[in-house]
Automatic annotation (TrEMBL):
Coiled coil: none annotated. SUPFAM superfamilies: Cysteine proteinases (SSF54001). GO terms for molecular function: cysteine-type deubiquitinase activity. Keywords: Hydrolase, Protease, Thiol protease, Ubl conjugation pathway. The keyword Protease applies. Residues 129-487 form the USP domain. Its EC number is 3.4.19.12. GO terms for cellular component: cytosol; nucleus. It holds the Pfam family UCH. This is Ubiquitin carboxyl-terminal hydrolase 47. Residues 371-390, 802-811 have a biased composition (Polar residues). It comes from Cyclopterus lumpus.
Length: 1281
């Protein structure tokens, strides 16, 4: 007993039983339910629950009771459990599922109305194996199980021998079916996969998501088998088992002459409900009688009789001549409703008997007479197909109680045969489809010839059912779910001596099948061993600071019993360190990649198993492993669990540089004084004058000045970053926030690197631009800071040479006269400090930061600034008492940060394409007329470098290091010398991840939303001024297939009238679009996506009468007559006439209304169309312009003639210009269409609407044809994408 049990940690376990009953110990496994990758619990383990990955504290631990090693758990005959609070009667209790009457061991189903698999028997009791549903392959599983349960087919398949020298086993359909059948008969698994079979069909994974009709699959697969079995003993197997014959005849009613031919069939398609009838056939017998019922050919359908030599009345029909050994009946449950133009499923009840006497349907005389006509296979024309778009494999919903399987467990009955009259068939298989015409699920009910028992084969589940369950598949469901049954019958001779063939047992297998069984068993054993290895394998992330490849990442998979020494050897080979470092110079340490923290090393644990070292086998670990390397002369420093890692950056105030970090390990209980001593020893600095600044998070700098305060009290964590400075300068006497150190660190944390693409051709010569850039570059060399180390060494522009003779003469041209003040300021700043100016004469007001800037400041990682250093440290210090021993480089923090940072930026870039540039425009000048860029000068430094990608030589790139708190206006002014034009003459576009570009126009916004390596494109052209907006102009073509056509980009300004904007727009249209238009022949109107809206009148003023925004869009409409819109009280409606008698829509015509009156609209339409007012009906169009709708739907689908008096109420809601209204004459009746005409019109309408991008409600998605490829797969067109 556990002592002090109340003090022990407790865990809550929730166990899901996915087998069936109570079990014998050690015959089942307990596996983790929410982490299936973890190994099952070890029954023999002595570890406590807390050491076995159970989570205490009331957290739920989900477990599954599963098979052990692929074998079923053994059911205990009587299972007991005792509780001190129970009486003796209650002590014996069955742990398995309780039956309806709550008695132990009853096989009845649950009392719950929903379908449950609780009473499904184990495989050991049914003796049959299920098939795994790949996705939507239930139809395939049902057919394969039926063929497997057909002894004649199975035995014939076993007798066929595969010749590996003649064909690839992967593409051999008979061989893969043979393997599948052998596994179904011999495996110990509950269910097996069908992927090898579908692969032999030439299918890829996408085929698993296509559901097809089971009868269609049967036809196609039989054809494929016949092709594969040519010139073998099984060449005629399909015909011998499934082929029958019938006579198609026409008999003259005048002379009795009969013309006929013999056709063959593989199945008989039976109509459920005759075309046009409301009553379905009640039984298979009725449907068969209707199938052979002759029809009379009279009137215009008279038959030309060769004997009478004229057209005569005749009878045409079918007669059965011969029935196959296996008779297949296809019940045609799926039909097409021409009223709704949708496919439907017929759920009418149709019975089929257990024994079917076919003698009333056979032509005995014709069967006895010799057959002289050639036979043709009519299978193709008898073929019925059903394509379901969706599947539902879930049988636990309430609407599935009529699935036809109650799962009652009945004792096996003897198959009693009695003499039958010829020909009599016995039912042995029923294919069931549950669902609707839109989708559903197939399963098979099959009778075994071994014991006469019926079984339900429902994918991986096999269970016993009764004859009553078969009767439930007759149909008659009133709900949305129903059944589609294909019944398989087997023939029986009229004498008792003739019985169906018996299944081949393992002892009677042919030799090649016995060999196949042995190979499959070996494969299963190998799979079991591999699965066992997988269950005992630890999988953990592995990092390595490779001396050549820098930081690399992989996954280490090591058996739990492997020692740390063996795991290190595996990691050594995996990271390809042979020849770079010796194995003795490598070790595995515990590592936290997220915080870049070395948690601990494993000294003295080289022989410890990895399973114990890592805390067991888990699907994921909260830590990683790092393969650490050292130089031969170095020694590894031990990492203790209580230590923290600190990255120390040394700051040089004189050169204003920040060095690459060195790694120092400290303890949280150390004081600041002790910590300074530790840094002094590691960095070679003086501890007396040392200032230590901790960066806790982005832009949060704290000076550590209290000597006796501990690191924990100062906010140190597992991984930290500090800046240290130790000099004799007087900067330490100034308040920290006013010191040069603070300003340098502040700039360091806010500087970003941008890639700026300059325009291909700027005004002036390329030489001028190059000269200006070189001059500025030389002047900026004096302010070399650590920020320059964010990029690689700067390179000059390629292919831009400045002639010496032109340099002096053109130097004055590189900057415009009005920018000389800026140039002087840049030069002055470049010669001094590049930080924020502290000059008291600098009286420019500071810019306000936008909300987006504040938000984006927090999104930048505090470790990003580590990238500013370009060299690497080889010093790692744990304690000051390390002495003069040279230490190994435990972790190169720079490279790890670089690796993480690149990933972080990749993640950021993925979200760019969802961003939109801010709208609106600001002036570059404030209210006093001063440039906003002069308000505050922040750090800016640019260096030219050639673009990495294969762009043209003229397209050049600048690498710009800039303080992201700078405004766009100041940024543009700083770029002026490099672009060669004033900032008002070029535009700035931000480039997103998908190469989309959006113009940045808010000049008072900062660059805080930008991050390192963001791209910016500079384009020449007038930048927007205050109150200006860039506008996209589209032409509205109401009667064209594509009514929206882009014309030009233009600029509208606040206070401009519509007429003034048209005056500026028309010359652009003439020059760029070759449209010569007069100002009175065009109108502008609102554009909302593709919908035309409000008509803008000439006197309307932008921003006063018309709201306008950045990247605005408008329609330009060319008028065929003078403008009729004169007032905002008027309403412009687009109307279109529908003519039912011709099934056509007329062109759009505009109607101008003076009010929102329905009567006025009808009067205008009546006047325009000459339809009497009392006969005129109208309806509002639906969807986006042009509100396209099929001519087959418009007459009944729209809401015609709404009972309203005004247009601005429900259901019309016509309150703005541009609404679409259809109208018609009520006296016109729709054109009568034949089935062929309707089908042809449907195709045309579908094509038309698809071209315009409108939905076709009556047309489902295109169904993929079912194909089986005999040569391993379809031949793909190399020209296809």
């Amino acid at each position: 007993l556990i002592q002090n049990a109340a003090e022990e940690p407790r865990v809550l376990c929730i166990i899901q039983d996915i087998t069936s009953a109570g079990y014998v110990k050690a015959t089942f496994d307990l596996a983790w339910g929410n982490t299936p990758d973890m190994a099952p619990l070890d029954h023999s383990s002595t570890m406590s629950l807390s050491d076995s990955s159970f989570e205490p504290g009331g957290k739920k631990n989900f477990l599954q009771l599963t098979d052990k090693d692929g074998e079923q758990p053994q059911i205990a005959s009587v299972i007991y459990f005792y509780s001190s609070g129970l009486d003796d009667v209650s002590k014996e209790r069955f742990i398995g599922p309780l039956a309806r009457d709550s008695t132990a061991g009853c096989s009845g189903d649950y009392s719950s109305p929903s379908y449950s698999y609780s009473s499904i028997l184990n495989k050991s009791e049914t003796g049959y194996v299920g098939l795994v549903n790949q996705a939507m392959t239930c139809y395939l599983n049902s057919l394969l199980q039926t063929l497997f349960m057909t002894p004649e087919f199975r035995n014939a398949l076993y007798n066929w021998e595969f010749e590996e020298t003649e064909e690839d086993p992967v593409t051999s359909i008979p061989h893969q079916l043979q393997r599948l059948f052998v596994l179904l008969q011999t495996t110990k698994k509950r269910a097996i996969e069908t992927t090898d079979v579908t692969r032999s069909f030439g299918w890829d994974s996408s085929e698993a998501w296509q559901q097809h009709d089971v009868q269609e699959l049967c036809r196609v697969m039989f054809d494929a088998l016949e092709q594969k079995w040519k010139q073998t003993e099984q060449a005629d197997l399909i015909n011998q088992l499934y082929q029958g014959k019938l006579k198609d005849y026409v008999r003259c009613l005048e002379c009795g002459y009969e013309s006929w031919r013999v056709d063959t069939y593989l199945d008989i398609p039976l109509v459920i409900r005759p075309f046009g009838a409301s009553q379905a056939y009640g039984s298979v017998e009725e449907a068969l009688q209707a199938f052979i019922q002759p029809e009379t050919l009279d009137g215009p359908n008279q038959y030309y009789c060769e004997r009478c030599n004229k057209k005569c009345d005749a009878r045409k029909g079918l007669r059965f001549l011969h029935f196959p050994y296996l008779l297949t009946l296809q019940l045609k449950r799926f039909d097409f409703d021409y009223t709704t133009m949708h496919r439907i499923k017929l759920n009418d009840r149709m019975t089929f008997p257990e024994e079917l006497d076919m003698s009333p349907f056979i032509d005995v005389e014709d069967e006895k007479s010799p057959q002289t006509e050639s036979c043709t296979d009519s299978g193709a024309e008898n073929e019925g197909s059903c394509h379901s778009d969706q599947m539902s494999n879930d049988f636990s919903t309430d609407d599935c109680v009529d699935e036809g399987i109650c799962l009652d467990s009945t004792g096996s009955t003897e198959r009693v045969l009695k003499p039958k009259s010829l020909p009599t068939f016995e039912l042995f298989s029923v294919m069931v489809h549950s669902g609707s015409a839109a989708g559903g699920h197939y399963y098979a009910c099959i009778k075994s010839f071994s014991d006469g028992q019926w079984y339900s084969f429902n994918d991986q589940h096999v269970s016993k059912i009764t004859q009553e369950d078969i009767r439930k598949t007759y149909g008659g469901s009133s709900g949305s779910r129903g059944y589609y049954s294909s019944a398989f019958y087997t023939v029986s001779m009229c004498t008792l001596s003739v019985l169906p063939a018996e299944y081949l047992v393992a002892e009677d297998f042919p030799e090649h099948i016995k060999s196949l069984v042995l190979r499959e068993k070996e494969s299963e054993e190998q799979e079991k061993r591999q699965r066992e290895i997988e269950r005992n394998t630890c999988k953990i992330k592995l990092f390595c600071m490779h001396p050549v490849k820098m930081m690399t990442e992989s996954k280490l998979e090591v058996h739990k019993d492997k020692t740390l020494k063996e795991a290190t050897e595996m990691a050594y080979k995996m990271m390809e360190l042979e020849g770079v470092a010796s194995l003795d110079c490598c070790r595995l340490v515990k590592y936290d990649e997220f915080h870049e923290y070395l948690e601990r090393s494993y000294e003295g644990e080289e022989d410890t198993p990895m399973g114990l070292l890592l805390g067991g086998i888990k699907s994921s670990y909260m830590f990683d492993l790092l393969l650490e390397t050292r130089k031969p002369e170095q020694v590894f420093q031990p990492y203790k669990p209580g230590e923290v890692m600190v990255k120390v950056h040394v700051v040089d105030l004189k050169s204003e540089t920040i060095a690459t970090p060195i790694s120092v390990r400290a303890y949280l209980n150390q004081t600041i004084t002790e910590f300074k001593q530790l840094i002094a020893q590691a960095a070679g600095l003086s501890a007396e004058t040392m200032r230590v600044v901790l960066e806790r998070c982005y832009n949060d700098l704290r000076l550590l000045y209290v000597p006796n305060k501990t690191l924990k009290a100062e906010g140190f964590f597992r991984s930290n970053k500090v800046f240290v400075e130790s000099s004799e300068s007087t900067d330490h006497q100034v308040a920290f926030t006013e010191s040069l150190l603070w300003k340098l660190l502040d700039r360091h944390g806010n500087t970003i690197r941008l890639l700026v693409l300059l325009p291909e051709q700027s005004p002036g010569t390329l030489a001028n631009r190059t000269l200006c850039q070189k001059n500025l570059s030389q002047q900026q060399q004096g302010s070399s800071t650590s920020d320059s180390q964010k990029s690689s060494d700067a390179s000059d522009f390629e292919h831009i040479e400045s002639p010496t003779q032109e340099a002096d003469s053109n130097a004055s041209l590189c900057v415009a006269a009005d920018n000389r003040e800026l140039e002087n300021r840049i030069r002055a700043t470049a010669g001094g400090s590049s930080g924020a100016s502290s000059d008291p004469d600098n009286h420019f007001a500071s810019e306000e930061r936008s909300d987006s800037e504040v938000n984006n400041d927090r999104s930048t990682s505090s470790v990003d600034s580590d990238i500013l250093s370009s060299s690497h440290s080889s010093d790692t210090l744990c304690n000051a008492d390390s002495g003069p021993i040279q230490l190994a480089n435990g972790l190169d923090s720079h490279s790890i940060t670089s690796s993480r940072r690149s990933k972080a930026h990749e993640g950021k870039k993925e979200t760019w394409d969802t961003a939109e540039e801010d709208s609106g425009t600001d002036s570059e000048y404030d209210d006093n007329g001063k440039s906003k860029a002069e308000a505050q000068y922040l750090y800016f430094r640019a260096e030219p470098c050639s673009q990495d990608d294969s762009s043209s030589d003229a397209q050049k790139c600048l690498v710009v290091h800039v303080d992201k708190r700078i405004t766009l206006a100041a940024f543009k002014l700083n770029l002026e010398p490099y672009v060669g034009v004033a900032s008002t003459q070029f535009k700035v576009f931000r480039v997103y991840a998908n190469n989309q570009e959006f113009e940045s126009v808010r000049l008072n916004e900062t660059l805080s939303s930008f991050s390192d390596d963001n791209k910016i494109t500079i384009r020449l052209g007038r930048a927007l001024k205050k109150g200006e907006y860039r506008v996209k102009v589209y032409q509205l073509l109401v009667n064209e297939p594509e009514p929206c056509k882009f014309l030009v980009d233009t600029v509208f300004a606040k206070g401009m009238t519509v007429r003034q904007s048209k005056e500026e727009l028309l010359p652009q249209l003439k020059e760029q679009c070759k449209l010569d238009l007069s100002i009175d022949s065009v109108r502008l109107r609102k554009k909302t996506w593709k919908n035309p809206g409000t008509v803008f009148l000439d006197y309307h003023v932008y921003e006063e009468d018309i709201s306008i925004s950045s990247n605005w869009e408008v329609f330009l409409e060319v008028l065929n007559e003078p403008e009729k819109m004169k007032s905002m009280s008027q309403l412009a409606i687009l109307t279109r006439r529908w003519s039912p008698t011709t099934m056509k829509l007329g062109p759009f015509q505009e109607v101008i209304l003076e009010s929102s009156s329905v009567e006025e609209l009808k009067e205008k339409l009546s006047e325009m169309s000459n339809i009497p007012l009392e006969n005129l009906e109208f309806a509002k169009g639906r969807g986006t312009f042009p509100c396209d709708i099929s001519v087959l739907e418009i007459h009944q689908d729209l809401d015609w003639n709404p009972k309203v008096s005004t247009l601005n109420v429900w259901p019309l809601y016509i309150c703005d210009d541009g609404a679409v209204v259809f109208y018609r004459a009520s006296t016109e009746e729709p054109m009568a269409l034949s089935d062929e005409e309707r089908s042809e019109l449907m195709k045309k309408e579908s094509s038309r609407l698809l071209k315009t991008g409108h939905r076709v409600s009556y047309s489902p998605r295109k169904e993929k044809a079912l194909k089986i490829y005999l040569d391993g797969g379809p031949v793909k067109d190399s020209g296809q994408d």
